[in-house]
Fold each of these.
Amino acid sequence: MDTKNILELKGRRKITVLTAYDYPIASILDKAGIDIILIGDSLANVVLGLESTTQIGIEEMLHHSKAVTRAVKNALVIADMPYSSYQINSQESVKNAKRFIKEAGCQAVKLEWFPNCPEVTKNIISSGIPVMGHIGLTPQTADKIGGFKVQGKDALTAQKLIDQALILEKLGCFAILLECVPSKISELITKRLKVPTIGIGAGVHCDGQVLVVNDMLGLFERYTPKFVKQYTNLSEIILKAVQDFKNEVVQGKFPDPEHSFTIKEEEFKKIHDA
């Protein structure tokens, strides 16, 4: 799967996107036929236990991106550019984006909208790196847009989102992620754009949908956004397995003969202390 394939899916079928941060999960997602695997900066929250995505740096993102790309054979792999890699010093953005392609083996990067986003996006695309845009709720700058809440709920802010989407498309983004946007606004944007929209908390009208894999698998219990559908609860399953292990060890039931190794009796008798 490449960006051209993703563009061709618009109007043909919905696009599936999930995050992954390690080899085992990425391998499963790829086997399941997920179209796009995103190494999200949500890594900061759901894997590393940090409070904000702004706290994760490029080295951590590269480390986990390499693990994901080792596993993936079919899906398009996109890495989130962490906050410090393109918003703090925009002049370093192209160099940092290239690291995700050359060092980690990703095929594209994702940028959240911020005041200097058009210039940074243009520079990265001009360097030959495909970019997925991200508008609406932008967690890296949530403190500047009123916090973690739905964006575009009035005509003025909705128009800003439409304008941002059109700007990013014109700059050459191959897809645009819409986060926490009213369904009607997402539908309008999706119809206006020639490139696919990927929604998260943005309704059914987007060209595709993304979720954080730890959320949909029940592996992150600190909080659950309204837009998350939990398809299973692996936390409960893992807890039960760990409790069973603990009990069997304490009771002397594990390891049993099936999980132990043997030595021939004649060899054992040769040992002086036996």
Note: The chain has a mean pLDDT of 97.
Amino acid sequence: MRVVHIITRLIVGGAQENTIATVLALRKRPGVEVILFAGPTTGPEGSLESRVRDVPGLFTLIPSLVRPLNPWKDVVTLVVLSRKLKSIRPDLVHTHSGKAGFVGRLAARLARVPLVIHTIHGPSFGPFQGTLPNAIYLTAERMAGRVTDHFVVVADAMKRLYLDAGIGRPDQYTRIFSGFDLGPFLAARNDIALRRQLGLAADDFVVGKIARLFKLKGHHDLLAIGPDIVKEHPKLKFLFVGDGAWRGRLEREFAEAGLGQHVSFAGLVPPEEVPRYLGVMDVVVHLSRREGLPRALPQALAAGKPVLACDCDGAAEVCIDGHTGFLVRAGDLDCLKSRLLELARNRDLRERFAQNGREMVQRCFSVDRMIDELHQLYLRLLAEKPGGPKPKDQ
């Protein structure tokens, strides 16, 4: 079975970590040959390209595959990808992310690839953006959807969203949770030395957030409730892990709000270091307005941390309200404040949520389970394809 994965760029992010884990694990399956195409990795989010760059025969850079809309480069990418796919003759193409998902699927059809699969890691359309961009992305998804044989979703919320938009049929969707290496997270511990390095005291109550410092990520919700909440809980500190275009703005705004002594910006942290930072957190918040299934939530639960999340997209499938954490409606600052204080004051509640979450994540989020489910899906879809190729390992 020859498989080509295509993603826009390999920045530090959940979709990229998922894709890299997938291609590296699939290569170890008997009879599976995997190739990965990606565009240049640019931006302050960091790069994961080194994980695949030196693996023999795995990675090919497509210089014209860029994230912003660029008609000339997009046409060039379509031509380059279709030519490469015609030469490689894969049994299936599996695309990820918005731009690569659109151009990659069209190129696969032009190259007459027997099976085209797309993973929806997060929505490309929705109320989080303006009317015109939303219409453009929705039109693009509907167009690409017509040349897609099957969709993999990281949360059932994505399936509902796309079906409601008239994209595909219910039987074209399969949910596969985005697995990760559980071991380092299960071993996470409260490192007092790391706390000290971050300006956090041993007895501080640390509210952690792992996300790009950018719009729609919910940092301003914490800024809004910050002055009130630290009055009621003076030992509460915010720890932001991640970087992005809004870092300077957020640092300034938190300082102007009198919260400079209550916030620590850790900056960009390599993915392998994330468990250490989770270890020093007492609760993890995720308030993004746009996310498929936030990777930070199962990672936090694996590390034994309760979660508090915005009820958006697939968050409710991991942050189960009253069981593994608390859900709040987007923009409901009063509820956010009261739930956060409830967690800060109630150690037994935190421990119960964390234990429930750790058990769920161990059942559902291992890399082995993700790859088993994806590999079986490939085999089934190829076998069902009329007149299509049969995998060599069947």
Note: The domain at 2-179+366-384 is CATH 3.40.50.2000 (Rossmann fold).
Amino acid sequence: MVVAESRGVVAAAARVGTALPAGWRERLRLSLAVEPDHRLGQCRYGPFRAQPPAAVIEALRTQAPGAPRAAAVLVPICERGGVPCLLLTVRASHLRSHAGQISFPGGRLEGQDSDVAAAALRETQEEIGIAANHVEPLGFLSDHFVRTGYRISPLVAWLRPGFALRAERSEVAEILELPVAHMLEATHYEVRRRTLGGVACELLDLPFGAHRIWGATAGILLELRERILAGAA
């Protein structure tokens, strides 16, 4: 890994040379929802290798403390050195929850947020310094439900040139640039086995350099991968 031009920004040392599917950006845009779908029955529940059984979904919902709480993340795509990349954050090690985990910029809705898109944009500026005028929203992925009780709405966006990255050190240890081609390659994923609701399950992690992407972030990447590859020649 090499340090890029902004402190706390980590880029791939060797850019992935795999060509992206023709027309992937337009295909992705057309596949996204104009508005988020907050129905619990339409949520995704993690980076499962196959559709999780009803017992697993019930177990995840039962573990959640109360009614689902709204949260949002931005899934920012940009070109870095001519390579399409996703920007993710490594959470600071001193945080009370999810310390050291890799996530997209985002968080729970606050009183000043008019909707989940506003929350995603606000959190992105606070965490990594990208102002809303550099963000071109493309649309929404499915909501993702996590056992801590949050229903996360991912807003996919293209970043316009000219933005500057600035990691908020109290929350973000590093900013990662994940090449889209790396995320699309099936052989890059590794299986992790767990038992949920008494059922043996297989989940997928995505190693990236010294890091490992798992949990809701890996689930969001897998759905993004599905949409980019759907119908590709």
Note: The longest strand covers residues 69-80.
